[in-house]
Design brief:
Layout lengths: L1 H4 L3 H15 L6 H23 L2 H8 L2 H25 L6 H11 L6 H10 L3 H26 L8 H20 L1 H10 L1 H25 L8 H28 L4 H11 L4 H11 L2 H7 L1 H23 L4 H8 L3
Helix pairs in contact: 2-11, 3-9, 3-10, 3-11, 4-8, 5-6, 5-8, 5-12, 5-13, 6-16, 7-8, 7-13, 7-16, 8-9, 8-13, 9-10, 9-14, 11-14, 11-15, 12-13, 12-16
């Protein structure tokens, strides 16, 4: 249990990146250069995701439309409702930008990689998880900016230019990867480590750029230890509420065990890989660093908790004898 709760190497790299940005932030003429590098890394990441995603798995998962609607409802209805409720309850009690970050977290799509990985470890419906998580991310390119415009007080709202920037960074490279999959898919499949390096590297670049600009504009002078403690407790409570809702909701809707696992792990996640690039487009450079703090903390909490939950599901998987006994007439 303790080994599962211990921070993974990537989390330590995130902390180190924040520390580096705090002491040696990029600023001035270096910002546009670093921004261009970061944008290119993000585009490469989603190109590789598109090239790696099996069309057979997507087609196999598409038939579970009730499952996908349930996951999308958890992601884009349940989470936003909880985010609005938390935001209203905390008005005036925490830093307003952290409150905005909590709401932004609730408006994001699900993750892809970790949702699929945990579903697989737990013995769930992997094909459906692939389709559901991917659909959530693709729809999120349009739904997240729309929800941000509806529920967050942005001056001037969300422009078409911002939506176009998100589409250009995420959706276009993903579709291009899918189109070129017959030629590059095998190479990407043989070099999974390449995807992992680009995945983590692009996130670290976005974090470094966001925190550099936030630090230059006085990020750490506006936050206290109490802010971080309260933020951790809220993130943990939010995840717990959604895990309970997706677990018992899927059972009430009559889903089997494999589908329940896919719903729980796809419906309770929020993406760091898409959330950070979207934030850099949707929000001003001065505020991005503090707005993504709740997301970064939630990301680590969800990984630790879902790792424990996936192992628990796996340990409780029914044996072949139990399945045969359940299927035999009484």
């Amino acid at each position: 249990m303790l080994s599962l709760l211990r921070p993974d190497p990537f989390t330590l790299l995130l902390v180190a990146t924040v520390a580096l940005a705090s002491f040696l932030p990029v600023y001035g003429a270096g910002i546009p250069i670093f921004s261009a590098i970061t944008t290119a890394a993000i585009a490469l990441l989603f190109f590789l995701h598109g090239a790696r995603l099996s069309r057979d798995a997507v087609i196999a998962g598409l038939v579970h439309w009730r499952l996908h609607l349930t996951v999308l409802a958890a992601t884009f209805i349940l989470f936003p409702v909880l985010g609005l409720a938390i935001n209203g309850a905390l008005a005036g009690l925490i830093n307003p930008m952290l409150a905005a970050g909590l709401l932004y977290l609730c408006l994001l799509p699900s993750t892809v990689q970790s949702s699929i990985a945990f579903t697989s470890i737990a013995g769930g419906n992997v094909a459906a998880a692939v389709c559901s998580a991917s659909a959530s991310n693709l729809l999120g390119v349009f739904l997240t900016p729309l929800l941000v415009a509806l529920f967050m007080n942005l001056k001037g709202g969300v422009s078409w230019g911002a939506v176009g920037g998100i589409v250009g960074q995420i959706l276009v490279p993903f579709v291009l990867g899918q189109l070129l999959r017959p030629w590059v898919g095998a190479f990407v499949g043989r070099h999974k480590q390449l995807v992992n390096v680009v995945d983590r590297g692009s996130i670290l670049l976005v974090v470094f750029l966001a925190f550099s600009e936030a630090v230059v504009h006085g990020l750490w002078t506006s936050l206290s230890i109490d802010d971080f403690v309260v933020l951790f407790l809220i993130d943990a409570a939010l995840l717990a509420l959604v895990l309970v809702a997706t677990t018992y909701g899927s059972r009430l809707l009559g889903f089997n065990r494999a589908d329940e696992i896919a719903i729980v792990f796809c419906g309770s996640k929020k993406t760091l890989a898409s959330g950070l690039p979207m934030a850099s487009v949707l929000f001003s450079p001065q505020t991005v660093g503090i707005i993504v703090l709740p997301l970064m903390l939630f990301h680590q909490i969800q990984l630790m908790v879902c790792a424990v939950l996936a192992r628990r599901y796996a340990r409780r998987a029914p044996t072949e004898g139990e399945l045969e006994a359940a299927a035999s007439p009484r």
